[in-house]
Amino acid sequence: MAATPTAQQHSDWQHQQDQLQQVAETAFADFRGAMLALDPRNGGVIALVSRPGFDPNLFVDGIDSATWRELNDSSDRPLINRALRGIYPPGSTIKPFMALAGLELGIRKPGDSISDPGYFTLPGSSHRYRDWKKDGHGHVDLKRSITVSCDSYYYGLARDMGIERMAGFLGQFGFGKRTGVDLDGELAGLMPTPDWKQKRFKQPWWPGETVIAGIGQGYVLASPMQLAVATMALANQGTVYKPQLLRAWRDPATGQTHQAAAVVAGKIPLNVGNLQLVREGMIDVMLPGGTASGAGANAPYLIAGKTGTAQVKGIKQGARYSESATAAHHRDHALFIAFAPADNPKIALAVMVENGGHGGSVAAPIARKVMDYWLLGKLPKAEAAPHVTPDAEQEREDSAPAAPDAVTAEPEPTP
User: Fold this and answer.
1) What is d(CA 321, CA 300) in angstroms, rounded to the nearest whole number?
2) Is 126 tagged catalytic?
């Protein structure tokens, strides 16, 4: 058990957390999706949003059949706790972990670079795995690959790493595993392996499936809670805490307030230099030239972030994605992970906006409002949800889609 806070300290902290929850819910506006904010120093859950929600008071005296049908049959699925049970392709938010894996496993050195033509091909194949930037990013090293979210870099890294080493390293951060949060119903997501595919589909694993797994697509699925926990481990140099909603309780007999002790679920041995390089790439994401520079503008503290735009529906080779021509529920998901201040992290978070489009323009601004309140006490101004111009050039990974209904898909657990 941790040190006992005074009643006033607990009251002040509870007020700040309650206000943060309100800020997070307001920032999410009318979007569907989820957001998790954790304290990277102990794993405490400081905000949790799942949208759309429902009024739990409807169940107090027994819900009527018409209201139950409305909730249960809604295409927006308000009864799903998306923070724990929503599982989605993580998209480019997986790239910092892939970059770190490349360094830690000796597959890449910090100065290793590629010349990106805008696509990647496997030896002996004409199929092009496209980069989100049609003409490529030019000269790209590991740090810049994070900052500009270069798909081609990670296609090649995934090919060289192999799916089994990828699954083993990312599994240390909690991908494909339940986090153990103190709420029921959490799903494990999926970090696939050849053995898993053989057991699940009776099919072999193909090299192209490794390539797209490297950018968080294909069979790879993660919940917002898993992304938040993994980001927390990046922030605190490799400590994986069990996330806890119960932070403190009051003894009714004595009136004393007790604080819950942090629970360490794992410690990842990481090279400090490698971790710093990945962090620098994530810091540059928030600066001019990065994929979330707009959300990072004028921040008085350092933010380490990573955008993601995960494909929901596949497109044919050579075709281009058109948001305006795509049904709303088949549009790309917008994701964002971050921790701040980057040099002394006090908050780590993950935002997932279903069919929201681009992580940098939709998900990252939500995170910025949450970080501004937690770190500065700054309340967001009332404003309309951001509008993303259809068909504007944006980060979008080219790959096969994940389960078409990923929010409720329950894949077979990894062996």
Assistant:
1) 36
2) no
